[in-house]
Input
Amino acid sequence: MRIAVLGAGMVGRAIALDLANNFQVTSFDFDSNNRDMLKERNSSIEVAHADLRKIKSYESWLKPFDLVVTAVPGFMGFECLKAVIECGKNVADISFFPEDVLQLDALAKQKKVTVITDIGVAPGMSNLILGRHNEEMQVSNFECYVGGLPLHPEPPFFYKAPFSPIDVIEEYLRPARLQEGGAIVTRPALTQREFMDFTGVGKLEAFNTDGLRSLLFTMKHIPEMKEKTLRYPGHLDIIIALKEAGFFSEEVLEVGKVKIAPLQFSSRMLIDNWKLGTEEEELTVMRVIVEGTKEEKHQRIEYDLLDHYNAQTKTSSMARTTGYTCAAAANLIANGLFVEKGVFPPELVGKHNECFDFVWEYLGARGVIWRRKYVG
Output
């Protein structure tokens, strides 16, 4: 089977390298550095120079392939995925774009293709977990806490970003949608701070971000749902101060003879402050809580993940936890374990025990270890 991976950035490379163990893989990317790094790691992977914004070229590019993985930046993810579907290709998608992916469901059904979208760590694995338990119990509460962090935090920000600072800032600005009392409510991002302790990491602060995405529509029967981002203590206060001082404003200012939006300036300044070294140690920490009743008895199940940069493979934890989950989904499609036609967020895949168990074991075989405990 031939698989095309669109995007050879940090996560796209991890996906391509993993899939190349069992499939013929070609990686498409405009950046020669990304292509070169991938080729150096595995010479059997074909690389193709491609401006993935040229949607009209997809039909000729993708014709030889049986399956596609989309790992492009979020701002172009929706149009990219739509173009892949129009080419009649099954796809595992990890682009995390802001548009409603379920708008593409009718097109996917018309083209008779299988699309698994948002299939990373969060969204992604968190959705799979909820999808599984939603089939087994009456869920009343869902909570997800997740963060990608440097192993050795340094002031002033106590943070490093494995991707563009502007994408992180966008997460800090976009209003957070939560489910409260059975209805969708909107809270400002960065609000409702709480402190939590995590074994192997210590105390972290959690705050609202807009991470529930498809769950607000596919799981709207669950009365309470929230997702929060995790950071080291001290980071949030600095971000709030910058935000309140206008450093993230998109209103253009004139400074001397230069016109620039504060957000552009701030993003550029933070590139160096937040840049994660290619071999810098970092970690991904996550907790998912599902509560409800089963056979009239209360149940609370907690899932914990702590994953670190892998020095042997030189793969970041964010690439491992995100990319390997996506690669597992590609295998679900390739191996005929999930064959339904249409667009499927992870929760609609995780409801099938055999699919959930496959992803769980796939991650475990690569050292991404989730720990599950039944609290009561």
User: Anything to note?
Assistant: The mean pLDDT is 95.
